[in-house]
Write a structure and sequence with these properties.
Layout lengths: L5 E10 L6 H10 L12 E10 L2 E10 L6 H8 L4 E7 L3 H5 L1 H12 L4 E6 L13 H11 L2 E4 L8 H22 L21 E5 L5 E5 L5 E3 L8 E3 L1
Parallel strand pairs: 1-3, 1-4, 4-5, 5-6
Antiparallel strand pairs: 1-9, 2-3, 2-10, 7-8
Amino acid sequence: MLEEDMEVAIKVVVVGNGAVGKSSMIQRYCKGIFTKDYKKTIGVDFLERQLLVNDEDVRLMLWDTAGQEEFDAITKAYYRGAQACVLVFSTTDRESFEAIGSWWEKVEIEVGDIPTVLVQNKIDLLDDTHGRMDHEEAEGLAKKLKLRFYRTSVKEDLNVNEVFKYLADKYLQRLKRQTAEEPEVVHTTSNKIGVFNTTSSNLSSQNSSNGREVISLRPNKQRTKKSKNPFGSCSLL
C-alpha cells in the first residue's frame, strides 16, 4: 500500500456529446440507479465513490460534463487537474462517434497524457437500424488513439464498473512508478487537485510586492483520510 490509513483521490472527467449517457453512467456507477429520462447537464455535475483496487483505498471523483458547445468555456475549466478520462459516444448517434477526436483533443490540451478509455454506450440498442455502429470502425478508432475500448450498456449495467476500475488501476500504476522514480514528487503540476496538508512542513509564507503575506500550500500527495465505511459511499456536490 502506498501509505497506511490513507486513500488515493482520483479526479475523473467523463466527456462526449450530449445524450450519449454520461450522466446515466455516473449515476449507475455511484448510485446503482438508471433512468431513461434525459436531462441535459448544465455545466458540470459531480459524484464520488470509494473502492478498493489492489489493496489500495481509492476515491473516484467523477465529473459529469455538458456535451453542448455553449458550455465549453465552463467545462474546459473543470478538465484541469483531471487524472483520468472517459470518452463516451453512443451506439445510436453517429455524430457522437465522429466527435470523439475533438473531445480527446480538448482534454489533452488541458491536462496532457492521462489514463483514458473509449466507451461505446447503449450497446443494448445495437439493433437500432438508424444508428448502428460498425464494430471494426469503433475498434479502429481506439487503436488509432491507443486507448482501451469498452462497450457498455448503462441500462443493463454492462461493463460500467469495469471502465472505472480499469482507470483506477492504471492511475495507481502510474502513481507508483512516479513515487519510485521521484519519492518527493508524486504528481505533475498540471495534475494536482485541492487536497492539501496544512502542517508546518507543507506551509510556507512569503511577502508579496504589496507587502501582504502570501501563504503557499503544497499538495499532500493528493490523498485524504480513509473512510471507515467498508462498503464505500457516494455523495453529490
